[in-house]
Amino acid sequence: MKIYVDHPELEPQLLFIKNIFNLYFEDVFVLNGKGDNQLTFNITNHTMTHVKACLTIAGQSYQSEAVRPETDKKSVKQAIAKTLVNMLTEHTGITQSWGTLTGIRPTKLYHRLYRQGLSHEAICEKLAADYLISREKLDLMRDIVRIQNEAIPDLYDLKREVSVYIGIPFCPTKCAYCTFPAYSILVHKNDVPEFLVGLLHEIKETGEWLKKNDVKVTSIYFGGGTPTSITPEDLKLLLDECYRSFDMTAVREVTVEAGRPDTIDPATLDVLNDFHIDRISINPQSFTDETLKAIGRHHSVAETVEKFKLAREHQMNNINMDLIIGLPNEDRTHVQHSLAEVARLRPESITVHTLSFKRASEMTRNKAKYPVADRDEIMTMMGLTKTYARDHGYVPYYLYRQKNILGNLENIGYAIDKEYSLYNILIMEEVQTILGIGCGASSKLIHPETGKIENYLNPKDPKSYNKSYKHYTTEKIRKLELLYNGTAVVE
Ligand code: SF4
């Protein structure tokens, strides 16, 4: 679908306009110019307080007018988005419960207003007016923000603390929907020792810097990949270095992703236990064997259950399970079945993802091979997970959205008994620096005073990482110096 826009003010907004169209249609291209006048979007009038726009689509014309919340440039964009959403809603009959929001962290908006001292009603009024967010989503945001402030009472005051993400880029096989750095451990087994040399160097150097500069660590998260893909001996080496390098006294939580059940064995669980790992993830995604096969998981449902029980026998008392809504060939019956199985295991937290077609994944490259449910079915499936969570005492404690997510929905983390993942809250709400160490690890450097965010990405593949880890470590420390001491490192 080609949409033409022909207005100087819309020229810098082509991508943004495309993102709004993508809330309703797939395969959209937004182009500058008049085109054939069959599919056009244009501003017809623009004042300091209002924007009027028109849309021609499928032989029908629509008009809409929106108020600009402020007089700055951003508010023009917001008003344009509102006109477009209003007209597309009229045309398609689809209501967007997240309104004009295309960003991934809706609760950040809520936090910002909450910190200014606004009441829930005032926040709702403002967000509904500015972004057309539904009341249901606003109430969800309120509940999540309240829980996050309970879980981390100093959430707005973590300026001199960081969290650490450690990326291990190996997995047994690559899942069809995955775009993470995940190299088959079978093929890359021999790369692990060299990779660990770099990783341990990064941990040691950054740990020393943090200690010397009295910057505390709030939480540590081992992700990837699947960290438990490496041998228990290597895992021990890694954890040893972490516990030596970081000041663990202030660390409130350590999580290790053990997402793939086929990487869990008694020796690995013993190592996790020896280091008092607080939280692990064992991710079923689905409890239907055919689905697991279709998405390339290479483990069975029986193995998920078996490894979950094994982890319990090894005193793992905070286990998360990820589920994905909208996996190929799945409908509400599959989700009902997955939820019934989850109910038998009763993990401390469940993270419900909606399938996202990421550009570089196998699933997106070969979409026809992976038929997925329609929008209404996705909504029903998501509804089932929400009802399940509510009826089984799980409360939502963080959420995020992704581009190209089925039904334009969200991913929600639920927990029982206050077993929230602090790291997930901290990374989503962008309240402190996240230091990314290892392959494909992204550092999010947040200035303690201005809140300005800089992203810094380590190389994704082990070979490039092995060649350049010293450079990336030095560069990261230079950035930390600038951030916390306002000076550059003198080498
Ligand atoms: S287990 Fe996770 S990181 Fe590994 S391939 Fe699957 S989605 Fe990617």
Structure description:
The model has no long low-confidence stretch (mean pLDDT 93). The protein is of the alpha/beta class and 491 residues long. The N and C termini lie far apart (54 Å). Strands 14-15-13-12-11-10-9-6-16 form a nine-stranded mixed sheet, sandwiched between helices. The chain has a five-stranded mixed sheet with strand order 2-1-3-4-5, covered by helices on one side. A two-stranded parallel sheet has the order 7-8. It is globular. 41% of the residues lie in helices and 20% in strands. The chain has helices at 14-22, 73-92, 106-115, 120-131, 135-151, 185-188, 192-212, 232-245, 266-274, 289-294, 301-313, 332-345, 362-365, 375-391, 422-429, 462-485, and strands at 2-5, 29-32, 40-46, 50-57, 60-67, 161-168, 170-171, 183-184, 216-224, 253-257, 279-281, 319-325, 349-354, 395-400, 411-415, 433-438, 442-446, 453-457. The protein has 16 helices and 18 strands. α4 crosses α5 (135-151) and α7 (192-212) runs parallel beside α8 (232-245). It folds into three domains: 2-92, Double Stranded RNA Binding Domain (2-Layer Sandwich); 106-151, no CATH class; 161-476, Alpha-Beta Horseshoe (pyruvate-formate lyase- activating enzyme), CATH 3.80.30.20. The structure holds iron/sulfur cluster. Iron/sulfur cluster binds at residues 171, 174-175, 178, 180, 182, 224-226, 259-260.
